[in-house]
Recover the amino acids of this structure.
């Protein structure tokens, strides 16, 4: 369904993605893990065409996103649902208007029909009808994220993209979000890409896990995707970079920290 | 992979090296400005494209009309009144020495209608609305709301920029006329009732020197000011740097750039409008 061919991404002088090749078949749930700054979110935004790759191609159902006109891209995006890290709800609108937005924009449904769909979507993510009249600022982080999920699901998308869906949430709310991701997949044959550094999410929702590594820590000829396999294989990986991330061990980073702080104190004197 | 501490060269740069660095820095700055101007023009053209491609929605247009027009009206009226009175105070001292107090009507009203009314209304709009637009759109950029619009297949320029541009363009002439009117009223009030200038001569001089073309020139210029404010402010909001500092910088620079543009446009449009006047009415009265 999605294919990335030799994708490179640079911002100014910073190289974020290098030669990424990735195929995501229909119906698969791919979890992309990696430490902060390794290019996970950039990769997710490249898949939906929010950022254009410096080099390479992103194909959605065989169509190159770079070749599509603005109107065609807008149309293709109705097949996507994107859940943002901080929900990205429109502050000026109520929750009901937020969830109704894609429906009003892309369908010819009556206000009553839209209202019913909004109510159903909110109920699916466990939010009561009373929430509809509230503004995003009145909700907790977990509730906002669930509204973001309801809004992304409004048009029954074929591809769901989640950007750090559990970051900043308590463990219980994180599990609720994980359950919702699973429920979304079981309710309809949706393809999902989840970007996270939460290993609990990775183990629970993934069919496949891809791990990216920051380019600043790689040599020029090393691939950026250092792991591609199932969650079980991830736990058995012998690559120290993978196992340190999975087990949350700082490893050689602690050594770097010590070296850096000792060189700083030397410079002081 | 250990990081080596950077070695610093403590040798001070020679004169030639410092001069070369300075020229390179200046070149970089000019390059950045040229790129920013090119980006802004492209942004403006894309917005113009969207104005004609699809009719703006009333639910996005009306809140902007309210924000730009209704909420700006009191402050524009107040500043207009005061600037009219200030003009009377300042000009009176000079004109009294020449025994030409009654000419105050011409000076105050001409200055207001041609220059101060439009520039003042535009400056207030840039400060009140332009900065707010840049801050609002900047916050939307930083919190990924603009990306969210794109993800839902809605064009952010159509949704966010077009209504703001139309509101500024349509309402700035109204605000200018309001500033003119209140300025004229303030100047009249102070001149007649405080400075005790002869009312008949004051009005006579005003009528003789200020014509319809002067009012038209002021209102015509204001259209360009409104467009500049909307484009600059929306552009700065859309290209906001991350974080609270980025939003603050976007709001400040939106005002500063708008203000500079307003004065530059005022200068060039002033010359152009004078030439147009002299072209159509070569024997006409001097424009003061």
């Amino acid at each position: 369904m999605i294919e990335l061919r030799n994708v490179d991404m640079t911002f100014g002088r910073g190289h974020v993605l290098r030669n990424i090749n990735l195929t995501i078949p229909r119906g698969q749930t791919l979890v992309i893990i990696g430490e902060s700054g390794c290019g996970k979110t950039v990769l997710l935004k490249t898949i939906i065409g929010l950022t254009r790759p410096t080099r390479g191609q992103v194909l959605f159902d065989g169509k190159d996103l770079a070749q599509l006109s603005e109107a065609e891209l807008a149309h293709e995006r109705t097949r996507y649902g994107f859940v943002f890290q901080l929900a990205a709800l429109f502050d000026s609108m109520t929750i009901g208007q937020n969830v109704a937005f894609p429906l009003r924009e892309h369908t010819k449904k009556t206000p009553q029909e839209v209202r019913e769909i909004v109510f159903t979507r909110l109920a699916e993510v466990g939010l009561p009808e009373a929430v509809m009249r509230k503004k995003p600022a009145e909700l907790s982080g977990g509730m906002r994220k669930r509204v973001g999920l309801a809004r992304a699901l409004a048009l029954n998308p074929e591809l769901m993209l989640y950007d750090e869906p559990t970051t900043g949430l308590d463990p219980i709310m994180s599990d609720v979000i994980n359950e919702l991701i699973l429920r979304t997949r079981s309710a309809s044959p949706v393809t999902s890409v989840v970007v996270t550094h939460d290993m609990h999410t990775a183990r629970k929702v993934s069919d496949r896990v891809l791990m990216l590594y920051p380019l600043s820590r790689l040599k020029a000829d090393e691939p950026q995707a250092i792991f591609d396999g199932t969650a079980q294989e991830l736990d058995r990986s012998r690559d120290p970079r993978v196992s340190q991330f999975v087990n949350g061990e700082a490893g050689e980073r602690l050594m770097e920290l010590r070296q850096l702080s000792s060189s700083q104190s030397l410079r002081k004197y | 992979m250990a990081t080596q501490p950077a070695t610093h060269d403590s040798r001070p740069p020679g004169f030639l090296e410092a001069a070369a660095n300075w020229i390179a820095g200046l070149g970089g700055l000019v390059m950045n400005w040229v790129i920013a101007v090119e980006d802004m023009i492209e942004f403006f053209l894309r917005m113009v494209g969207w104005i004609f491609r699809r009719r703006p929605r009333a639910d996005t247009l009306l809140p902007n009309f309210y924000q730009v027009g209704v909420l700006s009206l009191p402050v524009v009226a107040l500043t207009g009144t005061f600037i009219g009175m200030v003009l009377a105070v300042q000009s009176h001292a000079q004109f009294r020495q020449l025994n030409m107090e009654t000419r105050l009507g011409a000076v105050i009203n001409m200055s207001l209608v041609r220059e101060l009314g439009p520039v003042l209304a535009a400056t207030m709009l840039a400060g009140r609305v332009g900065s707010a637009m840049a801050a609002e759109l900047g916050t939307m950029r930083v919190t990924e709301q603009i990306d969210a619009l794109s993800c839902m297949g809605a064009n952010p320029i159509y949704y966010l920029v077009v209504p703001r541009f139309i509101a500024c363009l349509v309402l700035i002439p109204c605000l200018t006329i309001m500033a003119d009117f209140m300025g004229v009223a303030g100047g009249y009030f102070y001149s007649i009732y405080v400075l005790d200038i002869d009312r008949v001569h004051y009005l006579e001089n005003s009528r003789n020197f200020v014509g319809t073309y002067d009012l038209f020139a002021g209102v015509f210029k204001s259209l360009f000011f409104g467009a500049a404010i909307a484009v600059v402010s929306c552009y700065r909001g859309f290209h906001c740097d991350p974080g609270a500092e980025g939003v603050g910088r976007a709001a400040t620079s939106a005002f500063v750039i708008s203000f500079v543009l307003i004065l530059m446009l005022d200068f060039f449009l002033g010359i152009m409008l004078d030439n147009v006047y002299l072209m159509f009415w070569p024997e006409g009265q001097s424009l003061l």
